[in-house]
Predict the 3D structure of the following.
Amino acid sequence: AGAMGACARRDGVVSTAWFRWRGYARVDELAARVEARAEAEAEDGDGGTRMRWVSSALTRACATQGATIWLGILGEAFDVSRGREHYGVGGGYEFFAGRDASRAFVSGNFTEDGLVADVTGLSPGNLESIRGWRNFMREKYAFVGYIRGGAFYDKRGEPTAMKHAFDAGVALHDIEKARTLERQTMYEDCSSMWNERDGGFVWCSPAEDGAERYPRNETTVSASGEHSSRCACFRELGVSDVRRVYSGCALTDTRCQTSTGRMAPSDTRATKRRCRRRASIRLGARAFEN
């Protein structure tokens, strides 16, 4: 009863119509499923830190109009009532209320099929994005508790296989990010520019000791098999399958064109001739008028 009062009641009334819509015939049927341990606290294995727990059924109950609004992500429940204009009835993200829809934070699939906690098959980068949203929730909204009996913690409060897989995925992302930063420190990114008329260019300025550096299209493959490429500056002239010279660029060029603009060189010359011709006509017309 205390759990129900803490979550689904503001003025002492709970919408029975909402519960029937969710598949519960009676309010007390939900209360029976929530049970007295819905907001139980349990000590962790170290015997020190205490963790707050809520049930997945109780989290769903918090989507009631006029009640406190809870939202779940990565097995953690947050009170997002202060964002009622977003997560309340009629809000742009009301479909997130009362459930853990972790996958939808990166998939953009806001149908019932997409509003799920299952993050199976997502790339380490996508898992990191979900972690970023979870951290955003931690910073902006009040933490309620960990969701027991959901996708990330079982009914005993133990991490599930999905929670372990998620942790491994974001750890892999962090390792790859550290490797990327280390490589960017060794070989800086090229300078670049693009405009509609001239197209795109990359170039490398000399190093601090005055040595020339050359732009190369570098490809890297992550431990998860994802390919990425960037323009990096190298002192060495050597090339390989993963360190390529840009098309149309000589081995010793320090500036390379990566894309053409809207007008090809021949079109540019023709345009200049037309402009000169029009200018001559205008000058002739002014001389005639004078």
